[in-house]
Amino acid sequence: MFKAINLFVGLFCTILIALVLPAHARRLPDRLDAVQLRKGLAAVSRQDYTAAGLLLRSPAEHGNASAQAVLCFMYTYGRGVPQSFREAAHWCHRSAGQGNAQGQYLLGLLYNTGHGVREDYVQAYKWLNLAAAHASGPKRDFSYRIRDAVAAKMSPRQVAKAQALAIAWRPAPELRGAALMAGQCADGEKCFDP
Asked: Looking at the DSSP assignment, which residues form a beta bridge with residue 190?
């Protein structure tokens, strides 16, 4: 009888752990990413880009648009990581696709110069226009001036196309645990040219 009670208690504990552990295991990375994001952004504020790059990688990989935008900046300018326009474009696309204004602005700059992506003024205008729409104060004015500088290189038809793309665009938040295919944006568009 004592053996049967021990067996029952052991089985009950095993089932309880099996039910609780998966839920706890899912919450643990979220909490860890939140801590790493906070510490990573603080490192950026201190201009400790090496630490920021290490801390922000996991939140960015798990879909945090702010962490992705910071990594885009860091790879664009080689701050704390080796400069890589291709890597910058990857993070910019992921961030911009979720509606992050900083990611959109940086992606627009990359399309304007052809760094990490093929030069495409229509895409540059679209992303810069979206970024400017989310900015305020002097940042907004500056963003519109940059967008208008790109427009000066475009035909009226190209500007109209870029404006239509910006109007039709909708953010696509990344789902946690759903890894993006390499080189693909959340909406299936090709993010960058290899």
From this structure: 184
